[in-house]
Amino acid sequence: MSRYVLSRTAAMGATLLSVALLVFILLSVVPGDPARLAAGPEASPETYRLIRDKLDLDHPWPVRFVRWLGGLMRGDAGESLNYRRPVVELLWTGLSVTLPLAMLSLFMALLLAVPLGILAASRAGGPLDLATVGAAQLGMALPEFWLGILLAGLFAVRWTVLPVGGFPGWDQPGDALLHLLLPATALALPRAAYLARMVRGAVADVLAEDYMRTAHAKGMPGTRVLLLHALRNALVPVITSAGLTLARLLAGALVVENVFFLPGLGRFALIGVHARDLPLIGGIAVTTAALMVFLSFAVDLAYGSLDPRIRRT
Amino acid sequence: MRRLGLYLGLVLILLPLGFVLAGVAWTPHPPTLMGPQRLAAPGMDHPMGTDWFGRDLLSRVMVGGRATLAVAATAVATGGLLGTAVGTWAGVRGAVAGEFVMRGVDVLLAFPTVLAALVLATVWGPGILGVAVALAVANIPFFARLARAGAMTLHERHYVAAARAVGAGDLHIVLRHILPNMASPLVVQATVSMAGAVLAEASLSYLGLGVQPPQPSWGRMLQEAQAYFYLSPWPALFPGLALATLVLGLNLVGDGLRDLLDPTLRRLTSARLATGRAHRSGRPQSR
What we know:
The structure holds two protein chains of two kinds. Chain A has helices at residues 2-29, 34-39, 45-55, 61-73, 87-122, 127-140, 144-158, 173-207, 210-217, 222-259, 265-275, 278-306, 308-312.
């Protein structure tokens, strides 16, 4: 086990380094003159000089990369050109919205998908099963941002029962959660549809196993068999896939935040793109990509600990 | 019955596709012509109603899908070809090349399409090129993984050894013996990828990173519709409906093809375990 963990950790370190290098090259080497890009075509020579100083461009790029990387390790990602504040400060603000949003939608998706998937599988071919399968197929086809627009239009604009958008901050936790409700639903529904299909498939596979027949034969009550034998085995792929689902939700949040004007990473990123705020975009890109790498690392470990066959290779 | 989903999916794809193709030759009204009726409800003259500027929504939906379909198809084709080429090369070359490619796959997987598109839009400015490149790159890992797993198993087959014995070169073996035998999972992946690419392109156009106005696009139309939803919900309904129908159709066709081609997929199972990534290598995936 420890050898597997070690090799995975080494691979993760290498991936993180490559991710940082890729972001750096895209934002700081490919443009040729990043200061010209950030300043924009109509900037005065003084503004240009100022931005050039701020971006610290007077060294060859490998030196700049090492400096930037060192800064990142110390929790310093430079200063945002647009907000004139440390990028790290903005990243924390963004994460304090994006992460809870993704977690809330993961929770909602699981809450909806797991019971539905189990019920559907235990009555395979029945009306509930067909309805679940159909609804899941439909749900997976819905664009999250469209769902967000429709939900906001109905619940916030038409019926005015929930806020349209914006975020009050975590000082008022109840109000903050209320503001996350609609965006989280928009993110959760398509994921719930995907997960429900997965749970249904996994439970159906387990129900066909020999040990299920044995459990029934020895006189175990049906519900107990379902909960004790079927669920435990069927939920393994679902639990381990929660990491990948969370990754998908984080990526989706980058878009949906903009539907609801939530000040998360995605909102900052979009504003950053239009302001050509290179330090901010770099910080957001590295943070998000690192989150993705961590999540897939966690998934690998979870799989390794649950399935010994994977560890050995 | 088994192929019901496949046929239903094809019909659902043809519906929006037909509208878009017809829109190339003819639209009921010029899509950018502003009329006197603003935000009209669906009626005889405007079957889907009109938008804030009095432009005919049906015409705009017909024209607006063009960019989505073109960008998604180009990106999936490019990413699919690149991924397949790299993956096949790694599978045939063996462990060192394979490890190298898989690390590259890990790096690319760290960048969700939206993130990649945001970074590219910062450097190149918002536009269709950045979106297409982001989508293509995002698709490389899935095809690379599938192709590597497939090529690894097929490379061990006796008929490959036999071909080599009679003097066939690497390129000949790959083109004649390996690629044709692992085409099915790649075709299924292409369908699933297409659904994901359509969704991603629309999301990015919604954010204003894709097709630029005045050219209409489904994502862009939805962004405009959001602003006056309180006046009329119709403009927010139809472009999304077209989008969802197309994606639903693609997903159904993907599922149907997978069922149809199942034996081939099952044959790759051992390869899947061998790569140590049973959960992520064998099955088609989307973002």
